[in-house]
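User: Sequence recovery, please. Input:
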């Protein structure tokens, strides 16, 4: 394809349309790795920046996804239950493995921000947990969790190895859970997040913030989950 530089349609948009047409017609199937940005830039006789803009728009629209060091790929047309990504407890899979890599585990003073999130005094102690959820050997979700140490005395790093926090609440401490409230937003990957999730810096990521409340209306957990956008559609199913 030769770009038409005499029309008002921006060059990056013409490239975007070309790439999307390849995917729509099935010439580039799900999982197909695109030519590199440099190769596309040479093909269209434009700058890398022009190609990058076209690709980023398709990434943000859920048509392509990028893996750091591996390239840009056509997204597989799948749906994924977002509750699985934030490690909600599921009665049906209690005996399954929940692979996590613990990045840090410490007991710290809540401080103003976390104290407000958990509705406790800023001087109270909390467990600060940073983990990486693994799926089929690949990093999938960065987890930051804060839980009050007074509610969960003697919690150790060993307790949380490859285990869901909800299962610990229920099995070890017998906490009766009431509800979870989840907020959705997005961020742009910084160096740390890009390195952990194996995505390019500047990639758009999903953010889920979860508040877990007991049947007595006490907040016992505040967690933030940072997810890769490598699926075009996520869903959350609610039983009525």
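Assistant: Recovered sequence (240 residues):
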């Amino acid at each position: 394809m030769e770009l038409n530089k005499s029309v008002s349609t921006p060059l990056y948009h013409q490239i975007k349309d070309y790439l999307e047409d390849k995917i729509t017609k099935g010439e580039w199937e799900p999982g197909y790795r695109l030519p590199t940005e440099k190769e596309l830039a040479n093909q269209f006789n434009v700058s890398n920046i022009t190609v990058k803009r076209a690709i980023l728009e398709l990434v943000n629209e859920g048509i392509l996804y990028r893996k750091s060091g591996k390239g840009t790929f056509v997204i597989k047309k799948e749906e994924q239950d977002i509750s699985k990504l934030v490690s909600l407890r599921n009665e049906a899979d209690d005996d399954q493995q929940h692979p996590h890599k613990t990045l840090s585990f410490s007991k710290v003073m809540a401080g103003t921000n976390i104290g407000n999130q958990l509705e406790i005094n800023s001087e109270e102690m909390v467990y600060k947990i940073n983990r990486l959820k693994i799926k089929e050997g690949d990093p999938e979700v960065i987890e930051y969790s804060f839980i009050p140490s007074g509610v969960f005395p003697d919690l150790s790093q060993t307790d949380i190895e490859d285990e869901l926090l909800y299962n610990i609440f229920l099995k070890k401490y017998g906490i009766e859970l009431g509800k979870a409230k989840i907020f959705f937003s997005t961020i742009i990957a910084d160096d740390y997040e890009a390195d952990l999730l194996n995505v390019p810096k500047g990639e758009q990521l999903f953010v889920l913030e979860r508040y877990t409340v007991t049947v007595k209306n006490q907040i016992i957990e505040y967690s933030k989950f940072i997810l890769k956008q490598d699926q075009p559609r996520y869903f959350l199913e609610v039983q009525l």
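The chain has a mean pLDDT of 86.
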